[in-house]
Amino acid sequence: MKKIQTQVLTIFMLLFLVFGAFVVFFSTRLMQEYANENQKEDLIQQSNLVLSNFNRVIEEKEDFQDLKEQALKVKEYTNQRITLIDLTGTVIYDSKIEDSSRLGDHSSREEIKAILEGESQGTAIRTSDSTKKTLYYVAQPIVDQSGKLVGVLRLAKPLAEMNQLNGQIIQSIATFSLLALVLTAGITFLVAKYIAKPIEEVMNVAKKLSNKEYHARFSGNGYGEVTKLGQTINELAESLEDQMREIAQNKERINELINHLVIGVMQLDDQGEIQIVNPAMCQIFGMESNELLGKSYVEATKSYGLSHIIEKAYRKKEIQNKEIYFYFPTERIVDANVVPIAGKIKGEMNLIVLLYDITEIRRLEKVRTDFVTNASHELRTPVTALKGFSETLLDGAMEDKGILKQFLEIMLEESTRLDLLVNDILELSKLEQKQVPINYKTVGVKDATLSVFKLVKQKAEQKNITMNLIEQDNVEIEADKDRLKQILANLIDNAITYTRSGGTVNVILKKTEEQATITISDNGMGIPEDELNRIFERFYRVDKGRSRNSGGTGLGLSIVKYLVENFNGTIAVNSKIGLGTTFTLTFPLRHF
Question: What is the pTM of this model?
Answer without folding.
Answer: 0.47
